[in-house]
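Appendix B, record 7
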Amino acid sequence: IRLLSEARDYKRLVEELEREAAAQRDGRLAIAALLRAGEVCRDDLRDPARAVRAFGSVLERDPADVEARMALEPLYAERGSWEAHGNVYAAVAPVLADPSARVGALRELGRLHQSGKIESADRGRQAFGSILQPAPADIGAVRVVYPKPPVTPANDTPATARDLGAVAHLILPTQALVP
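Structure tokens (predicted):
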């Protein structure tokens, strides 16, 4: 594999990585080989369809693999596969340890819904509602979830957003996003 990589024989390298993954008994080693195959397809062969298949094979083995999901995100965006693109954010948001990264994933999911690329207004609102759990003072999320009261200088403050976010937890508990 190293020799094929050094020789820049990427097509044969991917074939060998896929063979290694198929023959591997250790699931983590198989996943590592498939991740590398996906990266080579994406970066060196410029074959996004084959990269999607390689990363998809990782998810067949481990549906919670964040690395494969995040590798798929730009590939889906390039192809205009907006439902699949949104599913990436919906799947990774609950497992991200960093609250700001979680909020970022949820914001992207909500943005896709707001743009009309994904047709589920409830799911977009739910994504913004989920932002209020780790970030109850997020003004943007509060505005989407609770568009009233009208924005005025008196109520357009982080304190108002925090208060409305606290009310949101009592009135509309956030549900887990389902990809």
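Remarks on this record: Residues 27-43 form the longest helix (17 residues). The chain is about 70% helix and 0% strand.
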